[in-house]
Amino acid sequence: MESRFKLLLLEASLETVPVAIAHHPSVVKTAARRGKKPLEILLDKSLHYHAMKKLPNAEKRGRPDIVHIALLEALESPLNKKGELLVCMYTIEKHAVYIDPSTRIPRSYNRFVGLMEQLFKEGRIPPGSDKPLIYLKTIKLGELIKEIGARGLILLSEKCDYKPVSFIAEKAIREELAVGVGAFPHGDFDEETTRYADYCYSIYPEPLATHIVVSRVLVAAEKLLGVFEL
């Protein structure tokens, strides 16, 4: 059965340490403690704050915890358990991450970090599998939207016109549109992301945490599809 609701976590704040700061003491220390090379560990603002000051778009980067909570919210939802949800990521470094709906994301943040580091190193989880649970490739956002079978994209941003979340979920399902939620801590969507949006709506006049937006949208879709009654 094809999933009737498609969720994209956009500009996801998930990446390995960039070359530009690989020799910073805070990065070297973290890598040594983990028994890994600096370029093999995830960028984490709580650990690499001073090193990240040199990076462009620093305010949007180094928050894998945002992705972790959002994925737990989505993959453990009744909508996903009923086979009605497809969730993918598009990272701030323009990597598409495809996630099989049966994937069990570790609840432990440290285990999640290790899993994502393995993904960036190997390109897929499990490594070498012909049918991976998670895999990564570098493509344009427009290609990702097409590959998941969506006819377009609804972007959610507090800067756009308000629409009830029920309206957004119904439109997404009826018109076979993916719903895109920002998975970064601060700042705006970049120009390339907004260029691919067919519609842009707000569900609340102020910024909300990614997992809160995800939960509201999924509950609306569950009600419309008869998965979970309120």
Helices and strands, with pairings:
Blueprint (H helix, E strand, L loop, with lengths): L4 E8 L12 H10 L10 H8 L11 H12 L2 H4 L3 E7 L4 E4 L9 H14 L1 E2 L8 E4 L3 H7 L5 E10 L2 H11 L2 E5 L8 H5 L3 E4 L7 H15 L6
Parallel strand pairs: 1-2, 1-7, 6-7, 6-8
Antiparallel strand pairs: 2-3, 3-5, 4-5
List keywords for this structure.
19% strand, Alpha/beta knot, 230 residues, alpha/beta, eight-stranded mixed β-sheet
Characterise the protein shown here.
It is a single chain. The protein has two domains: 5-14 and 61-224, Alpha/beta knot; 20-55, no CATH class. Helices cover 37% and strands 19% of the residues. The chain is built from nine helices and eight strands. It has an eight-stranded mixed sheet, with helices on both faces. By secondary structure, the chain is an alpha/beta fold. The protein has helices at 25-34, 45-52, 64-75, 78-81, 109-122, 141-147, 165-175, 191-195, 210-224; strands at 5-12, 85-91, 96-99, 124-125, 134-137, 153-162, 178-182, 199-202.
Fill in the CATH topology of the largest domain.
Answer: Alpha/beta knot
The share of residues in extended strands comes to: 15-25%
Radius of gyration: 17 Å
CATH architecture of the largest domain: 3-Layer(aba) Sandwich
Physical arrangement of strands within the biggest beta sheet: 4-5-3-2-1-7-6-8
| Residues in helix, % | 25-40%
For the largest beta-sheet, the strand count, sense and barrel status come to: 8 strands, mixed
**Secondary-structure element string:** EHHHHEEHEEHEHEHEH
Number of helices: 9
Poorly predicted regions are none
* Shape annotation: globular
Q: What quaternary form is this? A: single chain
* CATH superfamily heading of the largest domain: SPOUT methyltransferase, trefoil knot domain
Q: Residue-averaged pLDDT, rounded?
A: 96
Q: How many domain modules?
A: 2
Terminal CA distance? 25 Å
The CATH class name of the largest domain reads: Alpha Beta
